[in-house]
Amino acid sequence: MQTYTVAIVGATGAVGAKILDKLIERKFPFRSVKLLASSRSAGTVIQAGGRLFTIEEAKPESFDGVDFAFFSAGGAISENLASEATRWGTVVIDNTSAFRMDAEVPLVVPEVNPKALDSHNGLIANPNCSTIQMVVALNPIKEAFGLKKILVSTYQAVSGAGADAILELKSQSGQFDSRAENSASQLPSAGAERHYPIAFNAIPQIDSFDDMGYTKEEWKMINETKKIFNDSTIAVSATCVRLPVVTGHSESVYVEIEKEGITAEEFSRAISKAPGVIVQDNPATQTYPMPLFAENKDDVYVGRIRKDPDHPRGFHLWIVADNLLKGAALNSVQIAEQLLKNRDAQNN
Amino acid sequence: MQTYTVAIVGATGAVGAKILDKLIERKFPFRSVKLLASSRSAGTVIQAGGRLFTIEEAKPESFDGVDFAFFSAGGAISENLASEATRWGTVVIDNTSAFRMDAEVPLVVPEVNPKALDSHNGLIANPNCSTIQMVVALNPIKEAFGLKKILVSTYQAVSGAGADAILELKSQSGQFDSRAENSASQLPSAGAERHYPIAFNAIPQIDSFDDMGYTKEEWKMINETKKIFNDSTIAVSATCVRLPVVTGHSESVYVEIEKEGITAEEFSRAISKAPGVIVQDNPATQTYPMPLFAENKDDVYVGRIRKDPDHPRGFHLWIVADNLLKGAALNSVQIAEQLLKNRDAQNN
User: Fold this and answer.
1) Beta-carbon count within 10 A of A227 CB
2) Which residues bind phosphate (chains A, B) (predicted)?
């Protein structure tokens, strides 16, 4: 069997560490893994899958001989180093937003648009976490019934804002009585002008605002969904909200389908056939997805499937997934696996 | 000035206590207040506004001589005692769901449909907390531009599930590391078959389910909105979710208006003129409503006002209010105040 040299840029971050875990767990055919990070972390030893890995400083020449490089160290690092990597012939799978809307760069969720990988210039983008879980759940609906409109309100976990945001939630959560006066420095984002406590709160801002009053997170959901579905005629709009949840994004999604006369049961059955999706939907037993129980799970969970009482083509669903796994690390590794499948198919 | 005898049924509950506070704070012209509760609480002394009040057991004859009775002790108590009270000539303002959809019973938010009070049989219903804040914010939109469709996803606080739910959130919040195993007995509701931890979670169930897969809370929002707006042609649908927030419900609301060509600025200006509403909406300064800062406030806060990029008559807004005040106690007292205004108007 052919084996590959793999690099992870941003190996000290939460997503980088989970990419390494998934490569080992899913038996990706690597012969070696280079863990790359800033010079500050160089020399640090990391244990994963019973083996030890030493962090090296990420440099342009780090990619010599690397077949696949996973980038998850922020948009600026990707902008600086990804083209250096591709120059060495490395295929870059980038988890930042740097290249996602670049027309030359495929934006891929393997269950949804694997064919987008057929042509690329060495650079493949992994979509935003909140987009991935939504398109995985909605793709079978689009294929079976057509999608006219998507409206989503998110309930997003703090782990999407980094490890320090998790620590801040933990600390504030112990200070119940002073909850409105708790000090805050991490949310809506560490770099924001103003910070608000997240414990016992809901912050309707993820990333920065544009002139229309939308946040970048909301535009990611709007634009990435249209690109992944390769259909700019689907109407998409979004409201993104950060919650005191550690890991696991939830989404209240409303869709208008094209086909007439579809029942909630037919809608549900279409979703249940989708790869990577588990329907958890039984009101009689209070069965529905919740973020607390999606942590560390690979699948996308869907429940609360219902028909709009006032619109014959309107449906609700509630979509939950681990934002660090299917929303980031797992999807990135699945992209690499899909590339190998495509190569095998070409070679046969 | 004429003065009145007032009773509060369920005076030991969170909403009952706040009704007493609001009667005192707003100088409701009472000459005496009877605090009524179950026999278990009879004799308990409560302090409010520098005065002492002794709880009495609620009985059919408790209402002799009572002008206004506020009921907030659960639907079963209202069903048993409200008609007894009206038989004594008492006007009942009921905060439970027992009579809200009764065609004979006005369902009133004074800023929205005060005229509904013109005819009643002694019984007036206070709407559900999540409905009140939404209709207060949307009423000026309905009046200025017409409303075709409302889609709401809620972010609701645990105080709506009672004092024990607040204590459970506090206790679980201190147990960060065991979050998925924390014991739970209060949510989605104390009487539910299965319970889930609320800390670090989002539970997409408030109240029990019907055959269509909707919860009672969702139907309350759908049906009460149409009744208060006195317009069954407005399409309404809802998804209701409980969050680890103490007090303060938030709502991500999407509306389609009837009028063409309205800008987000015009939409916002219409809302800002509404009584009881404060627009907090400035992306440049990260100004938007948050539940943590709405606790103990009377007003309904609105922000994140935006136009749907893909629908010329679609708008988003984010509505936050204290669910125990405008959502319950304050609105109940405002109903009584409105009844007095109407009497004054008739007498002049």
Assistant:
1) 23
2) 100
Domains contained in chain B, number: 2
Q: Which of A24, A44, A22 is nearest to A35 (CA)?
A: A44
Q: Please, what is the average pLDDT of chain B?
A: 96
Q: What is the 3-state secondary structure (H, E, C) of chain A?
A: CCCEEEEEECCCCHHHHHHHHHHHHCCCCEEEEEEEECHHHCCCEEEECCEEEEEEECCHHHHCCCCEEEECCCHHHHHHHHHHHHHCCCEEEECCCCCCCCCCCCECCCCCCHHHHHCCCCEEECCCHHHHHHHHHHHHHHHHHCEEEEEEEEEECHHHHCHHHHHHHHHHHCCCCCCCCCCCCCCCCCCCCCCCCCCCCCECCCCCECCCCCEHHHHHHHHHHHHHCCCCCCEEEEECCECCCCCCEEEEEEEEECCCCCCHHHHHHHHHCCCCEEECCEHHHCECCCHHHCCCCCCEEEEEEEECCCCCCEEEEEEEECCCHHHHHHHHHHHHHHHHHHHHHHHC
Q: Please say whether the beta carbons of B200 and B244 come within 8 A.
A: yes
Q: Which long-range contacts (CB under 8 A, 24 or more apart) does A113-120 make?
A: A113/A228, A113/A229, A113/A230, A114/A338, A114/A342, A116/A228, A116/A230, A117/A335, A117/A338, A117/A339, A117/A342, A118/A342, A120/A91
Residue A27 sits in a domain whose CATH number is 3.40.50.720
Distance from CA of A249 to the nearest CA of B (A): 10
Chain A environment of B285 (Cβ under 8 Å): 193-194
Torsion over CA: B308, B313, B314, B318 (sign): positive
Name the residue range of residue A218's domain: 131-323
**Is A128 marked within a binding site?**
no
Is there a binding annotation on residue A13? yes
Judge if A155 and A92 occupy the same domain: no
Are A273 and A191 in the same domain?
yes
Q: With an 8 Å Cβ cutoff, are B209 and A283 in contact?
A: yes
- Catalytically active residues of B, by annotation: 129, 249
Q: Look at residues A295, A340, A256, A65 and name the one whose alpha carbon lies nearest to residue A157.
A: A295
CB contact under 8 A, A174 and B176: yes
Among A36-50, A195-209, A295-309, A319-333, the least confident range: A36-50
Residue carrying the six token digits 């990707």 = A78
| Residue A328: predicted pLDDT | 97
Same domain, A211 and A254: yes
Closest CA to A94 of A115, A120, A118, A74: A74
Q: Judge contact between B97 and B219, C-beta under 8 A.
A: no
Residues of A designated as active site = 129, 249
Partners of residue A149 in chain B, C-beta under 8 Å: 310-311
Instruction: Give the CATH number, domain containing residue A233.
Output: 3.30.360.10
Q: Is the pLDDT of residue A347 over 90?
A: no
Are A118 and A197 in the same domain? no
ipTM entry: 0.97
**Do B257 and B152 share a structural domain?**
yes
> Domain check: are B211 and B177 in the same one?
yes
Q: For the segment A72-115, what is each residue's pLDDT rounded down to a tens digit?
A: 999 899 999 999 999 999 999 999 999 999 999 999 999 999 99
Largest CA distance in chain A: 66
B142 and B160 belong to one structural domain = yes
Are B204 and B138 in a shared domain?
Answer: yes
Angle between helix A129-145 and A264-272 (nearest 10): 120
